[in-house]
Amino acid sequence: MRILASVSPGEVRVALLRGERLEEVWVERPARPDGVGDLHRARVTALAPAMAGAFLALAGGETGFLPESEAGPVRQPIAQSVQEGLVLPVRVTRAPQGGKGARVSARLTQAEQARAAAAPPGNTPTLLTRGPEATLRLGRAHQGAEVVTDGAGLAARLRAALGAARVTYSPRPVFDEALEAEFDLVAGPEVSLPGGGRILIHPTPALVALDVDAGSAAGTRDPEAQRRVNEAAVAEAARQIRLRQLAGPILLDLAGMTQKRRATLAEPLAQALAPDRLARLLGLGPLGLFEILRQRIHPPLHEVLAGPLTPGLAALRQAVREAAARPGRRLALRAAPALLAALEALPGALAEAAEAAGQPLQLRPDPTRSWAQWTIEDASHGG
């Protein structure tokens, strides 16, 4: 097992690999953490007995929801656990989603209780400590895994937490071309299957649909052709669910096959999902769709990567690479105004790019481009 963490302006991308096989993908923007694991001093603002919980005010004007099952060591009606105006320490257990606030818990570890007790007293909602970043979470979950990063600051933090022997700092980028290509594929809406066919991935606000396209196998006379495609799809679907952090209700529609034949793939699908502790197979529904439920903790990858910020950060990575290849060259980023605005709104991203490149990157808005289009130019050529 290896954990590779690629640090670039405004972003940290993390890969968990077993041999050369990519098993987990994480993309984090340190200036905008998802909040999972954060320890807050929060204030109860409203009880919601009908929802079996209470709403809390968190630091930064955010709202959290405390289920009554997480309000104390013993579950009891929420009104018997907390009262409006009560200030208490809580840990964020699930990131905000769909316009709803974070899910929190008041059931803390002894170490968390000690940190909360050591904080200066007060009634104002306060962030006491940040939760662990993805590289640290993976390092703790996979004790035997080697950790390699090209970020000096990240390497120092990880050595302090995991031990110097486990963490290697690389002065060169830790992602090679093959891994960069895999990250690009995981961000896309489809994945090819070995032997032909593909899986189309359609996230919606209510659920995620995975549709298997048999491709050329759909027109063959080989009765086992579709089964082979679907067997491959079952394994790859489970892998993609974990890679992309898909969550909530997930429906898998295999290619062709009768309901009876589809049922024979239930056990292989359950086995493929087994390593993912957050996912479970509910069964094969009456419409012939496999129904999977995966617990949501962190935002799924398609939410993290949505919008113009993602291509903007890719542009900063490219600018830093070009600056390293030709030191002293003045560079400019030509892109849609929405892309440039997204970079300017992310605290620290442009400053980090300027530090890595040795000088600021000129920004050249081009309204004729879509928000995903950008080019790195020689700034000496003017604008």
UniProtKB/TrEMBL annotation:
GO terms for molecular function: endonuclease activity; hydrolase activity; metal ion binding; RNA binding; RNA nuclease activity. Its cofactor is Mg(2+). Pfam families: RNase_E_G. PROSITE patterns: S1 (PS50126). Keywords: Cell inner membrane, Cell membrane, Endonuclease, Hydrolase, Magnesium, Membrane, Metal-binding, Nuclease, RNA-binding. GO terms for cellular component: cytoplasm. Residues 37-107 form the S1 motif domain. Signal peptide: none annotated. GO terms for biological process: rRNA processing. This is Ribonuclease, Rne/Rng family. It comes from the Bacteria.
